Amino acid sequence: MDYKKLLEAWGMSNYIEAFEDDGIDDESFPILDSETIAKLFPKSGPRLIFKKKYNEMFPTPATSKSFEVESSDLYNCSTPASVSTYTTNESIITDLDVSFVPDQELLDVIENIGNKVSEKRKIDDPLDNTPSCSKKQQTGLGDIDSVFPEGLERVLQKYTDGKLVLLNRNKLTNDLRQKLVKVAVNELFANKGSDIRGSTFMRIAEEITILFPNEKSETYYIPYIVTEKKKRGVGPKGKLWSRYTNVRTALRNANAFKENENPNKPSEQSQSPNKELQLEFLKTATEPYLKILANWQETYSLRRKLYLNSNLETIFTDFPCLRLSSGIELIETDFNQKFPDKIDIIYTTWPKVMNAINKEAAERNISIAEVADPSLKALITLPFLFQPVTLKKNRKGVSWRPTRVEVQESFFMRISNFDELQEKRSSRRQKLSTYGISDQPYACVAGNLEAVNNFYIVVVNDVVYKVDSSIRALELLFKLYHALDVEYPAESEHIWLFIQEIVFNIKSSKSSPATTALITDVQYHM
Questions:
Q1: 456 has which bridge partners?
Q2: What is the pLDDT of residues 295-337, one digit of tens each?
Q3: How far apart are CA 73 and CA 469, in angstroms?
Q4: How far apart (Å, rounded) are the C-alpha atoms in residues 454 and 469?
Q5: How far apart are CA 52 and CA 46, in angstroms?
Q6: Are 463 and 439 in contact (CB under 8 A)?
Q7: What's the pLDDT at 310?
Q8: How many whole angstroms separate alpha carbon 486 and alpha carbon 11?
Q9: 358 and 379 in contact (C-beta within 8 Å)?
Q10: Domain ranges in the chain?
Q11: Architecture of domain 3-69
């Protein structure tokens, strides 16, 4: 039996690459279990179609186990999926969680645990299952082997955010999940410092599912995984992990500042040989993930100095780790070091800004399309709130005045399928080349705009990052521009300056009168 021909006959040839990446062959194909199928088909529609055809072909218990379809709510975290969903020569990157980290409360966390932070700066070992606490806590839900002395529920009851989470026990929104994780991780740092084992996150995730029966542990923590075929590690994921890594980064930055004030600190010159070795490692390594993350953080200053004026192609060629799923976290790590006070600001500001954009558009009678998701609607509409701009002449003395649609496609492109993406990319690159303009990263939404469960990606040359929502695409794009010190797309620079000031509260000397005027108009509705 040739399973590839079978997939082609079922109209699923674009999933063959996913099967190959997961080490599926003709021998293992007839014995697929539900967990494997869920991994191969992260989207519920294709998964259900495959299961129907598969059960007809192999009427065995292989797929008898049921698996739940995760909510496709815009702000919810995706279920685990580390494979691509269409066939291409490009790298398909999957982002599994929404990062939300240091805010004003983080300053209190740093102050409270400053003396507890280990100078060793030990990186978490997600494979270590050694329990850090064995005392079982008595709660209304039975015996729980909690990592907190008084149990998670009582920890939540100590804080306003925690009490709010408990009041909505039956159904948590993404905002409530953020509050839950913030309380849990802050308490964890305060009690244990920054040296926290992966098994601790697993146990917190399990306790969350007991306190909140409708929650899934995978939303909060997914441990380090090694794929069978390529033996390539996929780093830890989940809301607990995201909060932890970013708080830990903020703590390291605080410690680094203190060390810079220490006259006995070794000079940068004496540390450079080690940094050079770490940099050389990053130029070839794609695993192990934790070592890459540690070296990436340690070489931040050196990389910024060496690659300050480099283009994206050079950066992504020199560091193959950026092309992996963990590349998203590496990019965000750099942004966190550069803007430690802006790490999670988008999740506070964007909901207000998007509503104001939609109100301003309605006031101007601008209606682009029927869009179910208000966040996506704001992003698609935003370019049409600006007047077209003329770009400077190129070397041949030719100017270009992009249409609003061209501006929109340099910012947030709309496509119906991925064949259309290839066509638009090719056409766009050809036109940009004519005017001597580089093709910068942009976001893309695929699917029916009247539905909420669309497919979002961020395109960086030949690398495609898959993300779970429009706000996540906006966040990743902005952080990528600033973490890697690359310019905004020429056609939509004024839009990004608007986002920079009104969403991330970062002033720019390049702001135009048009950008300033729209900020004023939008802020009127906030």
A1: 445, 467
A2: 999 999 999 888 888 888 899 999 999 998 788 999 999 999 9
A3: 9
A4: 8
A5: 10
A6: no
A7: 85
A8: 40
A9: no
A10: 3-69, 100-265, 266-341, 346-523
A11: Orthogonal Bundle (1.10)
